[in-house]
Design goal:
- With 242 residues, this protein is α/β, with parallel strands linked by helices.
- 33% of the residues lie in helices and 30% in strands.
- It is built from 7 helices and 12 strands.
- It has helices at 27-36, 92-105, 124-142, 156-163, 179-186, 206-213, 229-241, and strands spanning 2-5, 21-25, 44-48, 52-61, 65-75, 82-88, 109-114, 149-150, 154-155, 168-178, 193-198, 218-221.
- The strands form 2 sheets. Strands 6, 7, 8, 9, 10, 11 and 12 form a 7-stranded parallel beta sheet that branches.
- Helix 2 runs parallel beside helix 3 (124-142) and helix 2 (92-105) packs parallel to helix 7 (229-241).
- The radius of gyration is 21 Å and the shape is elongated.
Length: 242
């Protein structure tokens, strides 16, 4: 079942009612439905924005418009816990993969962090737009309808000050407590918010680890082996949400 984010399309709103039939004149949407998704008449798909998702059936399609039947309208459901993902500013391909995973899994906020071992600069508006585009594709694929927020990069101390008051504050580093132990024994009560911090290539510096330890962050190792940042985010965030 395909999903399309209408925020990426121009002049489209979701002012529908269940059971209604609507003719939408929008060449971009018609092209995506017919040539990209290759949907046939009477096939179902989902239109969504940051608030609702609408299950529809394709009734007619041309090069510039399409007709749909609205089968169901639902409010988007926020994934719990609300996760703030802090990630040391890794290389662009890795950060794009992390953004994809984060959007798939329903992360609420993504914050690149300028830690000691970061080896590059932030790409400003161009990189922001690229990451946003990557996350749109992830949300459409995974049916994760809520839009993650990307914050401008900040220092580690700024990150801790702003995001260090969640129900769970943790960072991931080798040589620390077992994350498996936390999942098995410590999460007996539901948590509403969590802040997860992952270092860049090369990990966190010793002084940064000491700083986190003294500011209400607990350190965990994910596996007996060493993971790259991309895989660490997928394992850590996915395990906590599941």
């Amino acid at each position: 079942l395909f999903a399309l984010n209408i925020n990426e399309l121009t002049n489209i709103s979701l002012n529908f009612v269940t059971g209604g039939v609507y003719n939408i004149k929008n060449r971009e949407l018609a092209n995506r439905v017919s040539k990209v998704l290759r949907l046939k008449i009477d096939e179902k798909f989902i239109l969504f924005n940051g608030e609702i998702n609408v299950s529809v059936i394709l009734k007619q399609n041309s090069s510039s418009s399409l007709s749909i039947y609205v089968e169901k309208i639902e409010n988007n459901i926020s994934i719990s816990p609300k996760i703030v993902l802090g990630i040391g500013l890794v290389k662009k391909p890795a950060l794009e993969q992390i953004a994809y995973y984060a959007a798939q899994l329903g992360v609420k906020t993504i914050v690149p962090i300028l830690t000691e071992k970061v080896g590059r600069s932030w790409g400003a508006e161009k990189e922001f737009k690229r990451l946003t585009s990557v996350m749109v594709g992830a949300r459409e694929q995974s049916k994760s309808f809520n839009e993650p927020e990307i914050i401008e990069p900040c220092t580690l101390s700024e990150f801790v000050k702003k995001h260090g008051s969640s129900d769970l504050n943790m960072y991931f580093e080798t040589g620390k407590n077992s994350f498996k132990h936390l999942l098995n024994n410590s999460l007996k009560n539901s948590i509403k918010s969590a802040t997860l911090l992952f270092g860049p290539e090369g990990g966190l510096a010793l002084g940064e680890i000491d700083f986190l330890d003294s500011n209400n962050f607990d350190g965990y190792k994910l596996t007996p082996t060493i993971l790259r940042s991309t895989e660490a985010v997928l394992v850590g965030v996915g395990s906590l949400i599941s």
